[in-house]
Each structure stands twice: as structure tokens, then as C-alpha cells.
Amino acid sequence: MNIQIFDSQEQLDETAAQYLIDTVKHNPEAVLGFATGSTPIGIYDKLVEKHHRLGVSFRHITSFNLDEYVGLTADHEQSYAFYMNKHLFSRIDLPAGQTNLPNGMADSLNSECKRYDQLLEEHPIDVQLLGLGHNGHIGFNEPAEGLIGGTHIVQLQEKTRDANARFFDSKDEVPTEAVTMGVGSILKAKTIILAVRGADKADIVREALFGPITTDCPASLLQTHSDVIVLLDREAGRKLDL
What is the pLDDT of residues 34-71, one digit of tens each? Predict the structure, then answer.
């Protein structure tokens, strides 16, 4: 693992965005995997800035998102489709037909999972951006006795719903299920960028990066990947002995 610790959030955002920009410069038809939540917002702002300032085009890339809530329409303000359009897609030249998210409103969620896996097989991800949940989840792959490799429906744990409640008017409004890319699909990405910030993530960062590889901490499986770039702010990395 390539672990980097930054003194500021801006430095972290700048570095992550530059990795993505360099990927697109090297391969204008790259496949990028995107994440949601609070951590990537600054990264997407930097991507937009570089898109306009440097003239880097996303016209020919394809994108995949990790997950989507079950039961939220794409125009719901807390859906990840809405999030991505707000923070990135509407601000760059990436055609809508080349962006992919699971459909949490599909008539058959099982069929939707199969559809998404087929798309991922057809478009291997070059760089996958990840955040890290307080319980070690990546995407919405929650701690469990066993993990599912492909796209699947997941029951969200209370810790995850508690963490996401700040985005809703109340915890009761937080969906109980999501459709998520599986850990197996995540690990197929050629390069993975794990971006984490905040003192409240310090323990799980240490566990994920240096603890035992176990499905009780899904992010620990990243230790098996050959090309993981870990970007931490000083607080998130404060318990690492580097």
C-alpha cells in the first residue's frame, strides 16, 4: 500500500483529484469508479476546477458508482444519483449515458444486480475511489460472516444509518437497504484510492490497513490488492506507526 498523510484536507483533495486527472490524461477512455458521502466532495470540486483550468475532458470516460439506496428516486435530494449530478456530473463534460449507478427503484432488484455486474464485466474499472465507513464498510459492504463478491442488496447496519442520518431530516428517513457493488468487484479495479479524513476514523483506519484480513472489517480485504493508494488527513492517520 502507498499510504500518504496530509496536513490539510485541501492537500488530500488535490492529490486524489490529480490521480484521477492523470488517469484520464493517460487514457481518455478510462473507466472511473466513484464514491459518495462527505469525503469525496472536495475531491470532486478539485476535479471540476482542473477540468476547466487544464481543459481535461471526460467526454469519453465511463463511470460507475459503488451504490445507491433502495427506495429513493434519482431526483430525491439524498439519492446518490442526485449527489453525483450535483457535485460532479453536471459540472463536467461527461455524457449522462456514460454514467452508471445501481437503480434502487428497479422493479426487480435481483435483476438490477445482474445488470450492473454485466456492465462491470464489460467495462473493467481503472481507478476506484473509496471512502471508509466507521465499521469498516466499503461501498455498502457491511461487516458479516461472509461477503458477497458481486452487486447485491444489503441491509444497512444501525451504525451506518446513524452515520448517514445527518444528511436526512431524521434517522427514520434513512433507507434500511441499498444496492451495492460487491467487494469482489471493487477488488477487480486496477487501482484503488482510499480517502479517509477525521479523528473518528483513526481506529478503523488502523484496523483496516494493519489488522487481520477479515470480513468483520470489509476494508481489510484491500490489503490483498496490489495497487492501493491510501490518502489520509493527519487526524485519520494519527494512530498509524509509520
Answer: 999 999 999 999 999 999 999 999 999 999 999 999 99
User: Structural domain tally of the chain?
Assistant: 1
CATH number at residue 65: 3.40.50.1360
Q: What is the pTM of this model?
A: 0.94
110 an active-site residue?
no
Is 75 noted as a catalytic residue in this protein? Answer: no
- Domain residue limits at 95: 2-233
Q: What sign for the dihedral angle of Cα 176, 195, 192, 216?
A: negative
Give the side-chain half-sphere CA count within 13 A for 37. 24
Point out the catalytic residue in the list 117, 137, 152, 233. Answer: 137
Give the orientation angle of helix 9-26 with respect to helix 40-54, to 10 degrees.
50
Three cell numbers written together for 69:
439506496
Establish if 217 belongs to a structural domain. yes
Asked if the structure places residue 173 within a domain, the reply is yes
Q: How far apart are the C-alpha atoms of 232 and 5, rounded to whole Å?
A: 5
